[in-house]
Amino acid sequence: MVKEFEGKTEKEAIDNAVAELGLERDEFDVEIVETQKSGFLNLQKKVLIRVHIPDERQFTMTTAGDMDPENDFEHAICDFLKNITEKMGFPADPRVMYRESAKIGVRLDSEHSGMIIGRKGKNLDAIQLLVNVVAGRLTDNGFRVIIDSENYRMRREESLIRLAQQVGDQVKRTKSSRLLDPMNPFERRLIHTTLSNIEGIDTKSEGDGLYKQVRVFYKGYDR
Fold this sequence. Notes:
Number of helices: 6
CATH architecture of the largest domain: 2-Layer Sandwich
Strand content: 25-35%
CATH superfamily of the largest domain: K homology (KH) domain
Radius of gyration: 21 Å
Order of helices and strands: EHEEHEEHHEHEHEE
Number of strands: 9
């Protein structure tokens, strides 16, 4: 897949691509297509980039394994998701991916999936939070709804595991400390779990609210 993005600088154009595609920077290649200057003394600048996404990362909307809602609860959840994405201006088609004893997975298929996912999945997390508020009102058994789009959560999980391993190696080698970007509870737990068995390395969460930061540190490091 190839898409083009603009920005006042190369970094801004790449940031725009990351936000719309819902990918990490290392998941696509960038080609500088054009740099234009205009205005007084040519001080205004516009950069056009072409983003190349490897075939294995191309977005798919396969219907294999999809299921229709089978009861009033699932119909209500899918109706809510359809309504809220329409109100966001990015209509999506909810599809049930899987069912477990206390959890269902719902995928949002949309041509606006990058906006539904948001930067580092924050829009997707917000939608999931809202739909679970609705689920809590519909049933009192603690049933959970997991929302995904374009397989983002699996791709994000793989990316975070790679990040944790890279940071763990760096911290162990330099006997230092590294504070990661804010993450939701699931993502933080993944970092903690990935690094839990590395000798000499420890982790802890810092900050308040839903999005806290994980500090990775050498056990002998003076914090």
